[in-house]
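Contributing new records

If you add data, match the layout below exactly. Sequence lines come first and carry their own label; structure lines follow with theirs. Keep one chain per record. Anything else will be rejected by the validation script.
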Amino acid sequence: TTYPNLFGDGPSTTTVPPLQVPGWTSRELPELRAEAERCASDADIQPVEMPDDGPPTVVVEPGDTLGEIAKRFDRTVEEFMRANGIDDPNKLAVGQQLVVPHKRSEELEVAGGPTILYMDLICEIDVRMAAFGPDGQPIGGAGVIEVFIRWLRIEGPREAPKVNGRLRGLVQADAVAFLGDVVDAVEQHGYACRTSFDGRCMWLQQEYQVMLATEDYLSVRNTLRRLMPGAVGDASEIRAETFDLSTGRPIAIGDLFDPATDWVPALSAAAIERLGNEPWTDDRRFTGAGPQAANFTRFNLTAGGLVLSFPPLTVGGSGTNTLSVTVPYRTLDGYWAPDGPVPMIG
């Protein structure tokens, strides 16, 4: 297995053999895989909590109304309707099982923009076997696979379902990929840790942050951290998405600029200049932020400028963290598309 070198001076990688729990033989773990699949699918049932035994539910009793049930759980009727796909709150059936919606962790009203709702996907999967360290000795307690993702959805714009669908799809894809990898590792090698925190070495954390929210545009960034079995340390990176709320579709970096201008070299020069002021960059910035549009796909619009994020090791550094810089909009005056997002923001 190959991992980024966390402590070297160049863009090298460190190849380490996978760890193996002493005496472990490769086997299938269908119950563990089923729990992982339930965790990943929870993003589809938004917004609900997913404990190990499934989402909390309530059975409709004679005389129950949706309003009474919602009040009982400190939720709203609208939240119950969304979580259960109910069109008419007056048409409940006795014996009907309803999912209790996840209590919104935070609701943010943005002046002139959409309502932002933050949702949590939390899974703690007990692998039902002891966790072992790199010396082949137990490190205390049973192994656990953890997932914590705080993502967001919006309400208000007509095309909000398209935005929410893409964000939910990204969350689920990340959860599926992570859980698939760690379950494969456990099946092949047991719960073996090279680096652990509190006796745990398999976790995924993500948190979405709103960088800009207006009537016309939504720009969010997602900070992703994960610790994989056998890795010498956790890895972190930043993802970015910007949406045109009139269409619900993502905006590409080229949509910001006038195609009749040489905007790619200009953007590259501005990025390289600012990267040169960062302590952890080196000559790799001339390649990682070179004049190719593909180098600038991770961007965010903000009130103060264009934020560019670069994947780990592409512009310098020796760790596994994304580096971001801000290019003030005025730096690229004359290159922005006249009918694009930037003139409306600035």
